[in-house]
Amino acid sequence: MRVRLHTGNNKLVPKWKKNGASSSNPSRTKHRDAAKLQLLSSLSTSQPPLVNIQPTKLAHDTDRVSQYSKTTLGTTATNASMIQVNARVIQTLLERQPAKNDQHQITIWLDGICRAYCSFHRSDPVTCLTFISKLFEICINECLLSVYKRVQTKATNVLKTIIKTILKPQTETLRTNPLLKQLFKYVEHGLTYA
């Protein structure tokens, strides 16, 4: 690690110590802490506002909260705006799917999308089912056909997790839902390539 030295009072002092950053990773820690403080100060207070806040401001604050803390997604005390945020996170992740030949990116993406689906299921199990078919299609038709063993294993683990945490608790709901037939079609179609 290269450290720029600050010359002051004839002493050589590393610049990060002069600015008061942590010694583990000086510049990153300083900037991350400053960003957190700025984000927290920009959030609205819990006191009732004196002026009517426009809906766009409220949506903007909700986006800031979800940026600041990943744990806000999927908490038990959810409301309609957090359910919409969960749905937007899933849609954004699906739109930003990396190429199946990029082994490192696709495994990270699969892990992230699996966590997002589990969080979405905790907040709204019924709406989460409408997004499941797209994940099954990607895992079976693209990731399981990858040339990389690591991608195939990760896709299999994602499917297992989704089945255990999302589909299994809702077996009664799924018996009358046409989604189950669609998921079986994806599995049958994927098995024809094997």
Question: Describe it for me?
Answer:
Residues 1-33 are annotated as: Disordered. It is built from nine helices and two strands; from the N terminus they run ββααααααααα. The chain has 194 residues and is mainly alpha-helical. The protein has two domains: 1-42, no CATH class; 46-193. Strands 1-2 form a two-stranded antiparallel sheet. Helix 6 packs parallel to helix 9 (179-193). The termini are far apart. Residues 44-66 and 68-74 have low confidence and may be disordered.
How many DSSP E strands? 2
Number of domains: 2
Span between N and C termini?
Answer: 49 Å
Strand order of the largest sheet: 1-2
Region (Disordered): 1-33
Quickly list its features.
single chain; mainly alpha; 2 strands; flat
